[in-house]
Structure formats: C-alpha cells, structure tokens
Design goal:
This protein is of the alpha/beta class and 413 residues long. The chain folds into two domains: 129 residues, Response regulator (Rossmann fold), CATH 3.40.50.2300; 251 residues, Rossmann fold (3-Layer(aba) Sandwich), CATH 3.40.50.300. It contains 18 helices and 13 strands. The protein has an eight-stranded mixed sheet with strand order 8-9-7-10-6-11-12-13, with helices on both faces. A five-stranded parallel sheet has the order 2-1-3-4-5, with helices on both faces. Strand 11, helix 13 and strand 12 form a beta-alpha-beta unit. The chain binds adenosine-5'-triphosphate and magnesium ion. Adenosine-5'-triphosphate (ATP) binds next to helix 7, strand 12 and helix 15. Adenosine-5'-triphosphate binds next to helix 7, strand 12 and helix 15.
C-alpha cells in the first residue's frame, strides 16, 4: 500500500522532518516543548522569535524541513490572532500554525482557529497532545497529497442496547491506532449519548446538532471548537446533554454537515440511536457503508430484516450493508447458520460475548488494548481491516510501523 503515512514518511527517512518555530512563547513553555520533542526524533525547535516576524522570514527559516510548524503564543489572544492571521495569509499552505495558551475556553479556541490555527495546545504542554497535533499535520499532508475524501460509516443497532456505542468507539480506535487513520466519531443521539462517557471524556458544551445548525458558517476553524480530543488522536463529537427538548435538524443540513466532515477526516463514524428516524436516514444516505449491529436474538434479527428491506426499498445499495453480530456465543439459542439464513446474507463480523472486558473498559473510561490479542480485540482488528480493504495478513505486516512516534520515523526499523 502506498497510501499510508508511514510509507510516505518512510521513503524520505534521511530528511529533517519537522521544523518548529516558536513565536512569542514564554521560556517555560519553550523549555517543555524542547523536552517533549526529545522523544520525537526528527523534530527540531528552530528558534523562538517575537510577534514582528514576517511570513517570508518564516518560510525561509523552515524551508529545509519536510513538515513546517509555527507555534504561536495565544496568552494575549489579540496579538496571537494578529500573528496567526498574518502567517496564514502570507505563507504557503505547507505552514501549519498551532496556538498555545493557558486559556481553555471554547471562545478562545474558536478565535485561534478563525485566525488560521489548525491546532490548539493547552499550557502546560503535554506530550500526548503535542504528538496528536503532529500526527494531524501528517494526516493533513497525506490528505492533500492524495486529494482524498474520507468515508462515512454509520453504525446502527437493530434494536436498543445491541452494543453500537461500545463497538463504534473501539472500531474507530482501531482505525486510529492500527491504521493511523484520521478519524472522527459523531454521537448522533439527540440527547445524552454515551460515547464521550465510554471514552472517559467530559461532555462538550456543543453537540453535533449545533454544528448542523451552523451549517452556513461551516469551515475547518469552526469545526475545531466542536471536538473532544481523545489521547489516542481520535476526535469525538458529543450529543446534546439536555434530557428534554430534543434538537431538530433538517435532513439536508445533516447530509451537508457529514459531507463536510468527510472532507476533514479519513473516517467519520456515526454512533446512531436505534430506529430509522429522519436524522438517522439522512446519515445513512450520506454514508459509504452501513454497519447494522445485531445480537443473537429474534427481535434484533427481525428488526434488521425490516430495516434492510426499508433502506434498500429507498435505493440504499444492498452491498453497502454489513451485519455485525455482537455478543455472539456458541451456547446461544440461535446458531450462526440460522441467523445468516434469516437475514439472507453472511455475518460480516462476529464479536464474542465478553461482558466483563467491555463493562470494565466502559466503567474505567479506558478502551480495550488492541496490542493484547483478546477475543474482543481480534474481531475488531478484522473489522477495521475489512473497512480499510486490507487482507488480515497485510494488516499484520503493517503493525511493525505502528505508533505515533513511528509516523515521524523515530522508530526506524
Ligand atoms: N461484546 C459484548 N459482550 C458483552 N457485553 C457487551 C458487548 N458489547 C456491548 N456489551 C454491553 O451491552 C451494553 C450496551 O452496550 P452499548 O451501550 O454499547 O449499546 P448501544 O447499542 O449503544 O445502546 P443504546 O441503544 O442505548 O445506544 C453495555 O452494558 C455493554 O457493556
Ligand atoms: Mg449507544
């Protein structure tokens, strides 16, 4: 495969990879940046200059690097935004601008993003946050190189509680961690979705539905103010927290918003509530694949059959639908042959019943570890491989190049 960040980077190992120019940064943050970057071979702080630096000078200072980053101090947001805007307007698109600030308020983040910053780092700087931002630089570069539009995958339960949220988040994490994909999971529940909770993230002030309502202002800068960041690099969009007053959204606005998200990610996964509401149908229309999660019980299978009939009747392509059998067990009342015969299609992925492992992961807010080949990790690997379009063997070969640091060549074989 040539479309992997690791491969693209790997062909140029001798180059100096990441040049970072600090602008107006306080000495303590500059020092901690240097310390954190010591772990990332190939990343180098070029200098710390004041706010009067001009775009031409920035381009000259970073020209020898494959990846070029300016980290602008935003503790004074007016000055930070002025500098960022100047660099954004005056430099070419190879320059990535990160904001760094003590202020974590969403308005501050939106201001920075609107002035041209692609990442917002909080002080004191943390290694995971920094690496995450650097991985996005690579993903953006890869997106530009390949001119790709990401894929939208809807994960929907045939009935409530089949395990959609548990599976969608682990599938997304697998795509991030094993395949280095830039990935977003949208919690499309109209109220109190579980996604952020299961990942151990706090709630976000804004939900997917607020983004949909701001459709006419949609751009990459606005999007940043809506994201929860998981330490793995996975981005999450929360559901509304209100338990009453369900949000409404026009179907075409949902479709338009998802199309926009696909331009910004390699994978957009949608964690849908059960049932074919108008919002869910809009999401499915915009999706490249629909993953219907069933459990080995009659109501789930019955509902899945009805949902497939309905959707294919509306011309959703039958071949784009996968059946995911969750909580599969040899001792279940229905065997796999009976389930496949009822559905008139094979089960694409079987996830075994392992309540203890899943519930412990959820309660701790710590997803399962894919490096341990547990009975849950193996089928999740296979599911991600299926979506990526890789044979499992080829996927195994790629594991040697895993890890955030290896994206930037510090773990050369
Ligand atoms: N493979 C599995 N083995 C055992 N338990 C599981 C498995 N997958 C999910 N569960 C459990 O099933 C319950 C429901 O899971 P989850 O919340 O992910 O379902 P859901 O389909 O998203 O539910 P909802 O319809 O409420 O959104 C949780 O307690 C979870 O721990
Ligand atoms: Mg759920």
């Amino acid at each position: 495969m040539t479309d992997r960040p690791t491969m693209i980077m790997g062909s140029r190992r001798s180059e100096r990879r990441i040049g970072i120019l600090c602008i107006n940064m306080d000495p303590a943050s500059r020092d901690s940046l240097e310390v954190l970057l010591k772990q990332t071979a190939g990343a180098h702080v070029v200098d710390n200059v004041d706010q009067h630096i001009n775009p031409r000078e920035v381009m000259r200072m970073l020209e020898q690097f494959q990846h070029r980053v300016c980290v602008v101090d935003f503790d004074d947001p007016e000055t930070g935004a002025r500098v960022s805007q100047r660099l954004h307007d005056g430099c070419d698109t190879s320059i990535n601008i990160f904001a760094v600030s003590n202020d974590a308020h969403p308005d501050a983040i939106i201001k920075a993003m609107r002035s041209g910053c692609s990442e917002y780092l909080q002080k004191p700087l943390r290694g995971d946050q920094l690496l995450d931002a650097l991985v996005h630089v690579e993903a953006r570069r890869q997106g530009k190189l390949l001119g790709q539009k990401g894929r939208v995958i809807t994960v929907m339960g045939a009935k409530g509680g089949t395990g959609v949220t548990s599976l969608a988040l682990h599938l997304a994490l697998n795509l991030v961690q094993r395949h280095q994909q830039k990935c977003l999971v949208v919690d499309q529940h109209p109220a109190l979705g579980d996604l952020a909770l299961y990942l151990g993230l706090g709630r976000h002030q804004y939900s997917f539905y607020e983004l949909v309502h701001n459709m006419d202002r949609l751009d990459a800068d606005l999007l940043q103010g809506f994201l929860l960041q998981h330490p793995s690099g996975l981005n999450v969009m929360d559901s509304p927290e209100a338990i009453h007053a369900f949000p409404t959204a026009a179907s075409d606005a949902i479709e338009h918003t998802l199309a926009f998200l696909a331009e910004n990610y390699q994978y957009v996964l949608i964690d849908c509530p059960p049932g074919l509401s108008e919002d869910t149908c809009a999401a499915i229309r915009q999706s490249d694949r629909l993953e219907i999660v069933i459990t080995p019980e009659l109501p789930a299978i019955h509902n899945a059959i009805r949902a497939i009939e309905y959707l294919t009747g509306l011309h959703y392509p039958d071949e784009n639908i996968d059946i995911i059998l969750n909580r599969s067990s040899r001792r279940g009342a229905l065997n796999d042959r009976e389930i496949e015969a009822s559905l008139h299609r094979p089960v694409a992925v079987r996830i075994p019943n392992n309540y203890e492992l899943i519930v412990n992961a959820i309660n701790a807010g710590t997803p399962i570890d894919f490096s341990r080949k547990t009975d849950l990790a193996v089928p999740l690997d296979a599911w991600a491989d299926l979506l990526i379009g890789e044979e499992p063997d080829a996927a195994k070969e790629s594991k040697g190049a895993r890890g955030l640091l290896s994206l930037f060549g510090s773990q050369s074989k």
